[in-house]
Amino acid sequence: MGKAHHASATTTAAVRRAIQHSQESLRALARRYGINPKTVAKWKERTSTADRKTGPTEPKSTVLSVEDEAVIVAFRRHTLLPLDDCL
Q: What letter would DSSP give residue 60?
Protein backbone atom coordinates (compact mmCIF):
# COMPACT_ATOMS: atom_id res chain seq x y z
CA MET A 1 0.00 0.00 0.00
CA GLY A 2 1.33 3.47 -0.88
CA LYS A 3 2.20 6.14 1.61
CA ALA A 4 -0.58 8.64 2.31
CA HIS A 5 0.12 12.28 1.45
CA HIS A 6 -1.40 15.32 3.06
CA ALA A 7 -4.66 16.59 1.61
CA SER A 8 -3.19 19.43 -0.45
CA ALA A 9 -0.29 17.47 -1.97
CA THR A 10 -0.15 17.97 -5.74
CA THR A 11 2.52 15.36 -6.43
CA THR A 12 3.29 11.77 -5.52
CA ALA A 13 6.65 10.26 -4.65
CA ALA A 14 6.90 8.83 -8.19
CA VAL A 15 6.29 12.25 -9.79
CA ARG A 16 8.79 13.87 -7.42
CA ARG A 17 11.40 11.24 -8.30
CA ALA A 18 10.76 11.81 -12.02
CA ILE A 19 11.15 15.57 -11.55
CA GLN A 20 14.43 15.12 -9.69
CA HIS A 21 15.91 12.84 -12.37
CA SER A 22 14.65 14.77 -15.40
CA GLN A 23 16.80 17.11 -17.51
CA GLU A 24 13.77 18.99 -18.87
CA SER A 25 13.13 22.64 -18.08
CA LEU A 26 11.02 23.67 -15.11
CA ARG A 27 8.28 24.96 -17.41
CA ALA A 28 8.14 21.76 -19.42
CA LEU A 29 7.91 19.63 -16.29
CA ALA A 30 5.25 21.92 -14.82
CA ARG A 31 3.14 21.58 -17.97
CA ARG A 32 3.63 17.81 -18.09
CA TYR A 33 2.50 17.23 -14.50
CA GLY A 34 0.02 20.11 -14.27
CA ILE A 35 1.73 21.81 -11.35
CA ASN A 36 3.27 25.20 -10.60
CA PRO A 37 6.87 25.77 -11.81
CA LYS A 38 7.76 26.79 -8.24
CA THR A 39 6.72 23.32 -7.08
CA VAL A 40 8.95 21.76 -9.73
CA ALA A 41 11.87 23.97 -8.64
CA LYS A 42 11.31 22.99 -5.01
CA TRP A 43 11.46 19.26 -5.77
CA LYS A 44 14.47 19.71 -8.08
CA GLU A 45 16.45 21.22 -5.16
CA ARG A 46 15.53 18.56 -2.59
CA THR A 47 17.41 15.30 -2.21
CA SER A 48 14.45 13.37 -0.78
CA THR A 49 10.95 12.80 -2.13
CA ALA A 50 9.37 12.85 1.35
CA ASP A 51 7.25 15.75 2.56
CA ARG A 52 8.77 17.86 5.29
CA LYS A 53 7.01 18.28 8.61
CA THR A 54 4.91 21.42 8.83
CA GLY A 55 4.56 23.66 11.86
CA PRO A 56 7.08 24.89 14.37
CA THR A 57 10.19 22.83 15.04
CA GLU A 58 9.85 23.47 18.77
CA PRO A 59 6.16 23.74 19.73
CA LYS A 60 5.49 26.09 22.63
CA SER A 61 2.49 27.51 24.43
CA THR A 62 1.19 30.82 23.15
CA VAL A 63 -0.58 31.54 26.45
CA LEU A 64 1.73 30.35 29.22
CA SER A 65 5.31 31.32 29.92
CA VAL A 66 7.89 28.54 30.18
CA GLU A 67 7.95 28.95 33.97
CA ASP A 68 4.14 28.81 34.29
CA GLU A 69 4.01 25.68 32.18
CA ALA A 70 6.73 24.02 34.32
CA VAL A 71 4.80 24.83 37.54
CA ILE A 72 1.59 23.34 36.13
CA VAL A 73 3.35 20.19 34.93
CA ALA A 74 5.07 19.74 38.31
CA PHE A 75 1.75 20.22 40.14
CA ARG A 76 -0.04 17.67 37.97
CA ARG A 77 2.77 15.13 38.34
CA HIS A 78 2.79 15.59 42.11
CA THR A 79 -0.99 15.40 42.63
CA LEU A 80 -1.75 12.98 39.76
CA LEU A 81 -4.98 14.88 39.18
CA PRO A 82 -6.67 15.07 35.77
CA LEU A 83 -6.66 18.48 34.13
CA ASP A 84 -10.41 19.04 34.75
CA ASP A 85 -9.93 18.55 38.52
CA CYS A 86 -7.03 21.01 38.55
CA LEU A 87 -9.22 23.74 37.18
A: -
Cβ neighbourhood burial of 8 (10 Å; 0-12, 13-18, 19+): exposed
Total-model pTM: 0.57
pLDDT tens digits, one per residue of 11-29: 888 999 999 999 999 999 9
> Is 35:11 a contact under the CB 8 Å cutoff?
yes
Give the containing element (helix H, strand E) for 77: helix 66-79
Domain spans of the chain, in order of start: 1-50, 58-87
Residue of 23, 16, 62, 71 whose CA lies nearest to 40? 16
Please choose, from the candidates 59, 70, 65, 60, the residue with its C-alpha nearest in 3D space to the C-alpha of residue 78.
70
Q: For residue 83, what is the enclosing H or E element? A: helix 83-86
DSSP state of 7: T
